[in-house]
Specification:
With 240 residues, this protein is α/β, with parallel strands linked by helices. It folds into two domains: 169 residues, Oxidized Rhodanese, domain 1 (3-Layer(aba) Sandwich), CATH 3.40.250; 36 residues, no CATH class. The chain contains eight helices and nine strands. The protein has a five-stranded parallel β-sheet with strand order 1-8-7-2-4, sandwiched between helices. A two-stranded antiparallel ribbon has the order 3-9. It has a two-stranded antiparallel sheet with strand order 5-6. Helix 1 packs across helix 6.
Length: 240
C-alpha cells in the first residue's frame, strides 16, 4: 500500500516518477492548464524547497543559484531584486492575429483583454518562450539552481480555507521547471513572500518598488497578502 504524501511545504522527499499532468503554458493548450490542486500536490510530492528572501539572497551570493523573476517584464524593469533575471511566466496579451491567420484582431483575445481592463489589470497570456528564456538566463549566470520569485509568493502550506495552499506565478513556474525537466529537482526553489517579501526584508533591490502591485496580477486573488507583503507596505510608508 502506497503511503499518502505528507503536506509539509519544506520537506524534500525522494519520490517515484509522477504521471505528468496535462500540458501547460503554451498558447495552444493553455485551456488545459491543470487545476491548482493538481499542481500543489505535484510540488509537494516532488519536495519543492521553499526559502525566505534572506536565504535566497545568501544562496544567490554563493553563485550557485539565480533569482528568476517571473513577474511581467514591465514590473521587473521598474524594480527587481538585485542580480535577478527576468523570465516572465506571462507576457502582455497580443490581440493581433498573425499573418498566417490573416491578420486583424483576434476577437476572443480582444474580449479577454477587455475583461482584464475592466478589473483594473493588464491582459496577459502564457509566455511560449519561457523554457528557452530560462535556459538562456541559467547559462548566462552560470548558476545551477533557480530561485523562482513572483510578486507575493503564494504558499504550499495548507490551511482550513485553502487546503491546497495558495497559487502564485512562482509556484507555477517551479511546477513547469520540475514537470518538464528544465532543472533537476534539487535545483528548483520558491521564494516565499515574492518581491514584496524581498523588499520588506531589506534585501538588495534595484529601482523604485511599489508594494501596492502585490495582488494586482490576474491571479492576484490567489496570491497571499501575508506578513511579508504587509511589511513591504509599511516600509514604503515609513512605519515600523
Amino acid at each position: 500500500m502506497t503511503p499518502t504524501p505528507t503536506r509539509t511545504a519544506n520537506a524534500l522527499p525522494a519520490h517515484p516518477a509522477l504521471s505528468p499532468p496535462p500540458p501547460i503554458f503554451t498558447n495552444e493548450n493553455y485551456p488545459q492548464q491543470p487545476k491548482w490542486e493538481v499542481v500543489s500536490q505535484y510540488l509537494l510530492e516532488g519536495g519543492l524547497r521553499t526559502v525566505s528572501p534572506e536565504e535566497a539572497l545568501r544562496l544567490q551570493g554563493e553563485g550557485e543559484w539565480l533569482v528568476v523573476d517571473v513577474r511581467p517584464p514591465a514590473s521587473h524593469a521598474r524594480a527587481r531584486p538585485a542580480g535577478s533575471a527576468s523570465v516572465p511566466l506571462y507576457v502582455p496579451l497580443n490581440v493581433n492575429k498573425s499573418e498566417a491567420e490573416g491578420g486583424g484582431i483576434d476577437l476572443a483575445k480582444g474580449l479577454k483583454a477587455l475583461a482584464y481592463a475592466m478589473n483594473g489589470v493588464a491582459g496577459v497570456e502564457p509566455n511560449a518562450a519561457f523554457e528557452a528564456q530560462l535556459a538562456r538566463a541559467m547559462d548566462a549566470s552560470g548558476a545551477k539552481g533557480a530561485l523562482f520569485l513572483c510578486e507575493a509568493g503564494g504558499t504550499l502550506r495548507a490551511s482550513p480555507n485553502f487546503p491546497a495552499g495558495k497559487s502564485s506565478r512562482s509556484l507555477q513556474a517551479a511546477f513547469r521547471a520540475l514537470r518538464d525537466g528544465l532543472l533537476p529537482a534539487g535545483r528548483v526553489a520558491h521564494v516565499t513572500g515574492g518581491a514584496a517579501g524581498w523588499y520588506g526584508a531589506g534585501c538588495a533591490f534595484e529601482g523604485a518598488y511599489d508594494a501596492s502591485e502585490a495582488g494586482r496580477s490576474p491571479n492576484g486573488a490567489a496570491e497571499p497578502a501575508g506578513p511579508e507583503v504587509e511589511a513591504a507596505k509599511k516600509k514604503m510608508m515609513g512605519l515600523k
